[in-house]
C-alpha cells in the first residue's frame, strides 16, 4: 500500500530532477459537522493537494472518522475509524495521493505533527469579500493545550500519544488553493495539520475538478455489495437491468438518461434533529407518504425504499400510510453494524436510494445532496433526481438546485 501512496512522490522526484522528500498534509473539520459535509471538505482539500503536487510531492493524510454527533448507536466504539471502512482507497488515490493516519504514524515512527495552523474567520466577520490570511491570536477556545516541554496536545482523533510541535491560529478568508504559497514557503515541517478545514472554500464549485474529486470518492466495495444484495433480494433491482454498472471512475462517463434505475422510488426522509434545524421545510410523516403515493402512481411503481434516520416507531407509522405499496428500509444485522458502524449503514442507505428509478430527498440535506451526485455519476435523468419532499402547507414548493455533472 505504501508504494501506491508514494507513486506520485516518485514521479515528482523525476520531474524535479532532484529528490524532494514527501510532505504530509493532515486536516480536520469542526466537530459539529456531519458526515456528508465532511465529504465536501475532503473534496476541497484534495484539490489543494493536487495543486501542491504541481510544485513538490505532498501526500494527504486522511483524518480518522469518529465522535460524530449523529453516530450514537449505543454499544459501538466509533472512533479511529479508517477511511477504508467507508471508501475505496485505490479510487481516492487515482485523484490524489492519500494515506490513512495510522499509516502516517507508522511511516513517521514517532507520533508527531510538526506544525498546526488552526483556521478561523477574521474577528468581527467581514463586509467585503477578499482573499486574505494572517497569523493572529485565537478567536475562541481551540482545544489545543501546551505542556511544560512546549508540545501541543489536542483530541487528535483519539490518539492520545500524538502531539504537535508548533501551533498557531490562522485567520483565513479564501479558496482552498489560496493557502498553497503559505504551505510551500512559510512552513517547513514534514507534516502540517489544518484543523477547521471547512474554512477553506471550494476553488470552483461544480466544475470538472470538483467532479473529479467527487467521482474519486467511490464507496468501499463491501458496502456497495451489501446494498446491491438488498436491491436484488427486495427491490428487483440489478445493475444490468437498471443500466447502472460501475466502471473505474477515471473512465466512466455517462449521459443523462443512460441509467434507468430499479423499479422503486427512493426517498431520503431526514428526521430527528433536522425537524428542528429545518422547521417549516419538512413534511409530516403523513404528508410525506401522500407525496410519495403520487409519485408511485405517476411512474407506475409499486415499491418504496426509505433511507432514514427515523426511529422505528416513526418508520412504522410512515409505512402504515401505504395500503397498496410495499415500503422497505435497510435494517443491518448485528455483524454489519459492528463492522461498518453507523457511517457504513448510512452509506448503504445512500447507495440503495441512489439506484432508484426516481429519487426524492429532504430539503437542503447534505445526505440528500450526496445521493443526487451519485445519481449524476450513474447517469440518471436530472428530473428523476433533483426532487425534494415539500412541507404539508406548500405542496408546490421550490425544487432543489440542479448541479449537473461536468467532465
Ligand atoms: C441539522 C444539520 O443537519 C446536517 O445533516 P444532513 O445535511 O442531513 O446530513 P449529514 O451531515 O450526513 O448528517 C446526518 C447524519 O444522520 C444520519 N442519517 C441521516 N439520514 C440518514 C439515513 O437516511 N439513513 C441513515 N442510516 N442515517 C442517516 C447519518 O449518520 C448522517 O451522517 C448536519 O450535517 C449538520 O451537522 C446539522 O446537524
UniProtKB/TrEMBL annotation:
InterPro entries: GDP-Fuc_O-FucTrfase, OFUT2-like. The keyword Disulfide bond applies. One of its GO terms (biological process) is fucose metabolic process. It comes from the Eukaryota. It is found in: Endoplasmic reticulum; Golgi apparatus. Pfam families: O-FucT (PF10250). Coiled coil: none annotated. One of its GO terms (molecular function) is peptide-O-fucosyltransferase activity. Pathway: Protein modification; protein glycosylation. Keywords: Carbohydrate metabolism, Disulfide bond, Endoplasmic reticulum, Fucose metabolism, Glycoprotein, Glycosyltransferase, Golgi apparatus, Signal, Transferase. Its EC number is 2.4.1.221. It catalyses: L-threonyl-[protein] + GDP-beta-L-fucose = 3-O-(alpha-L-fucosyl)-L-threonyl-[protein] + GDP + H(+); L-seryl-[protein] + GDP-beta-L-fucose = 3-O-(alpha-L-fucosyl)-L-seryl-[protein] + GDP + H(+). GO terms for cellular component: endoplasmic reticulum; Golgi apparatus. Belongs to the glycosyltransferase 68 family. This is GDP-fucose protein O-fucosyltransferase 2.
Amino acid at each position: 500500500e505504501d508504494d501506491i501512496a508514494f507513486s506520485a512522490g516518485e514521479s515528482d522526484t523525476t520531474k524535479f530532477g532532484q529528490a524532494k522528500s514527501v510532505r504530509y498534509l493532515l486536516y480536520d473539520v469542526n466537530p459539529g459537522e456531519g458526515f456528508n459535509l465532511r465529504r465536501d471538505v475532503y473534496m476541497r482539500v484534495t484539490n489543494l493537494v493536487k495543486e501542491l503536487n504541481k510544485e513538490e510531492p505532498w501526500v494527504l493524510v486522511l483524518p480518522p472518522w469518529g465522535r460524530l454527533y449523529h453516530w450514537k448507536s449505543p454499544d459501538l466504539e466509533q472512533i479511529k475509524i479508517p477511511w477504508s471502512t467507508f471508501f475505496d482507497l485505490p479510487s481516492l488515490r487515482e485523484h490524489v495521493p492519500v494515506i490513512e493516519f495510522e499509516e502516517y504514524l507508522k511511516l513517521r515512527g514517532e507520533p508527531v505533527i510538526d506544525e498546526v495552523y488552526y483556521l478561523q474567520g477574521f474577528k468581527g466577520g467581514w463586509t467585503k469579500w477578499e482573499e486574505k490570511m494572517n497569523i493572529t491570536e485565537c478567536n475562541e477556545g481551540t482545544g489545543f493545550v501546551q505542556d511544560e516541554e512546549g508540545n501541543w496536545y489536542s483530541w487528535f482523533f483519539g490518539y492520545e500519544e500524538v502531539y504537535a510541535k508548533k501551533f498557531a491560529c490562522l485567520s483565513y478568508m479564501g479558496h482552498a488553493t489560496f493557502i498553497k504559497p503559505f504551505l510551500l514557503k512559510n512552513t517547513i515541517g514534514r507534516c502540517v495539520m489544518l484543523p477547521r478545514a471547512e474554512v477553506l472554500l471550494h476553488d470552483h464549485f461544480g466544475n470538472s475538478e470538483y467532479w473529479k474529486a467527487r467521482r474519486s470518492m467511490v464507496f468501499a466495495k463491501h458496502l456497495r455489495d451489501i446494498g446491491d444484495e438488498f436491491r436484488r433480494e427486495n427491490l428487483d433491482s440489478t445493475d444490468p437491468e437498471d443500466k447502472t454498472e460501475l466502471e473505474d471512475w477515471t473512465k466512466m462517463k455517462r449521459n443523462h438518461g443512460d441509467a434507468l434505475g430499479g423499479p422503486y422510488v427512493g426517498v431520503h426522509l431526514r428526521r430527528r434533529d433536522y425537524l428542528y434545524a429545518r422547521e417549516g421545510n419538512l413534511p409530516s410523516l403523513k404528508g410525506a407518504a401522500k407525496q410519495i403515493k403520487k409519485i408511485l402512481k405517476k411512474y407506475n411503481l409499486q415499491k418504496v425504499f426509505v433511507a432514514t434516520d427515523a426511529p422505528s416507531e416513526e418508520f412504522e407509522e410512515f409505512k402504515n400510510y401505504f395500503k397498496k405499496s410495499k415500503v422497505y428500509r435497510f435494517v443491518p444485522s448485528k455483524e454489519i453494524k459492528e463492522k461498518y458502524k453507523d457511517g457504513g449503514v448510512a452509506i448503504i442507505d445512500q447507495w440503495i436510494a441512489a439506484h432508484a428509478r426516481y429519487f426524492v430527498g429532504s430539503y437542503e440535506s447534505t445526505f440528500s445532496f450526496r445521493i443526487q451526485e451519485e445519481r449524476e455519476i450513474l447517469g440518471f435523468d436530472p428530473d428523476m433526481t433533483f426532487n425534494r419532499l415539500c412541507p404539508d402547507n406548500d405542496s408546490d414548493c421550490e425544487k432543489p438546485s440542479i448541479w449537473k455533472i461536468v467532465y
